[in-house]
Design brief:
The two termini are about 30 Å apart. With about 425 residues, the protein is an alpha/beta fold. The radius of gyration is 26 Å and the shape is elongated. It is about 40% helix and about 10% strand. It has a 7-stranded mixed beta sheet with strand order 6-5-4-1-2-3-12, with helices on both faces. Strands 7-8-9 form a 3-stranded antiparallel beta sheet. α9 packs across α10 (about 205-215).
Length: about 425
């Protein structure tokens, strides 16, 4: 699909970042039509080598997760420690609109690549940065991954688990993608203003902040303790103020998630669904506060759980639909990749690989009058080095000299 139909056609982005969060921002901007040039060292982005952790083949031609974060970009290899490598970077920035990085503040300062270093030479540049712990404070230079900065430090791992057990299993990218969406929003806002005023901006976020942001309801509520009948995380699921909120196990050992924030509406409906309307005749068991104050939350929880164990998940679905009770089957990852509703809403696209087609996930932004992008695979390491350097005015002999000096690198099988 031609880029001129996309909102960021003509926008140029230079990405100097590894792993997931910031490359995901570049991917979103590329989806919107921007030309994104990704700079890697000769060793390559570390995300190229994580396949064994994720049950995928270690094959540069079938690297689904690297494609997820880097589709539709151009990739070059550059040694930014050398003056000639830095010169190439500056040539890229000469007509760039956006610069993206996840380097830590100390590393940027040592290479003279902070926003303050660049803003006078490139006053219109939107500089986007995402780190583990932010730009200020005693921990600004700590290494940060979503497991540590997003999940652990923000309270997720220490709060959202069944009391008396251990923190839940985690997955990579969940926190990174939250941070990516936040940084994307800031970059787009700054880019809009730059187009109007010619003034660039320094846009930052971090995994700690986004981790706290997505849990802000509970973090704010926790400051009241249990003064207003609140619960302190972690807690036992049998003490949930909404006894039907924990996932329920069905007769066929599947889990269903039902939900309804207003107890007065959904408790009677759920009792009706499981055939326990007799419970509502008890003046205590029909009132949320009285259930909580009387210490009968565990009893209410057991009623719900026992009720849902009487039928299979397939049998429950029409009953819950009929009563308009919000529900969802707790799907496995294998089921999600085949979800008819997800495919109908263009959540996935099919990419061909040596081992057969795979469902890859689109970025979660669609525009009604803008066609969905066609996806090229992420660039192989140094795949576009010659093309990009040629576009900057380097001759064939100059490019070869940079390659020979190991300042630039090109893809080789």
């Amino acid at each position: 699909m031609a880029n001129e139909q996309r909102p960021l056609e003509g926008v140029k982005v230079v990405e100097m970042a590894t792993f997931i969060a910031v490359p995901a921002v570049g991917r979103i901007l590329a989806d919107m039509g921007a030309e994104v040039v990704k700079i890697e060292s000769a060793k390559g982005d570390n995300l190229r080598f994580t396949a064994p952790n994720e049950g995928r083949p270690s094959d540069p031609h079938e690297d689904t997760n690297f494609d997820l974060e880097n589709a539709n970009k151009k990739g070059i290899v550059l040694d930014l420690r050398s003056p000639k490598g830095k010169e190439v970077l500056f040539k890229l920035l000469d007509d760039a609109d956006v610069f993206l990085t996840n380097w830590r503040p100390g590393a940027l300062a040592r290479q003279n690549l902070t926003y303050d270093d660049l803003k006078e030479k490139y006053p219109k540049l939107v500089y986007g940065s995402l780190t583990g712990y932010g730009e200020k404070g005693p921990d600004k230079d700590l290494p940060g991954f979503d497991y540590t900065s997003f999940f652990a430090r923000s309270g997720w791992s220490g709060s959202l688990y069944q009391k008396g057990t251990v923190p839940s299993n985690l997955i990579p990218a969940l926190g990174d993608h939250q941070g990516a969406l936040a940084l994307t929003a800031g970059v787009l806002g700054a880019l809009y203003r730059a187009s109007k005023t010619g003034r660039g901006e320094y846009v930052t976020t971090n995994l700690l902040h986004t981790g706290i942001w997505v849990q802000s309801f509970q973090i704010q509520g926790a400051q009241y303790g249990t003064e207003f009948n609140g619960v302190m995380y972690p807690f036992d699921r049998r003490e949930n103020p909404l006894p039907y909120q924990p996932a329920v196990k069905t007769k066929d050992d599947r889990f269903l998630q039902v939900m309804g924030p207003n107890f007065n509406i959904y408790w009677p409906l759920i009792m009706r669904a499981i055939g326990r309307e007799d419970v509502l005749e008890d003046p205590i068991m029909s009132d949320q506060k009285k259930i909580q104050d009387s210490g009968r939350l565990g009893e209410a929880y057991d009623i719900v759980q026992e009720g849902f164990q009487q039928k299979t998940a397939e049998e429950w679905i029409p009953i819950l639909k009929e009563l308009d009770i919000p529900y969802a089957l707790c799907a496995t990852y294998q089921e999600v990749s085949k979800d008819e509703q997800a495919w109908a809403n263009d959540v996935f696209y099919e990419m061909d690989y040596p081992r057969g087609p795979k469902a890859l996930v689109r970025t979660p932004i669609t525009m009604a009058t803008t066609p969905l992008p066609d996806y090229n695979k992420a660039p192989l390491l140094g795949e576009n080095t010659v093309e990009v350097l040629s576009g900057l005015g380097y001759s064939e002999s100059e490019i070869q000299a940079l390659v020979d000096e190991k300042i630039a690198g090109v893809w080789s099988e």
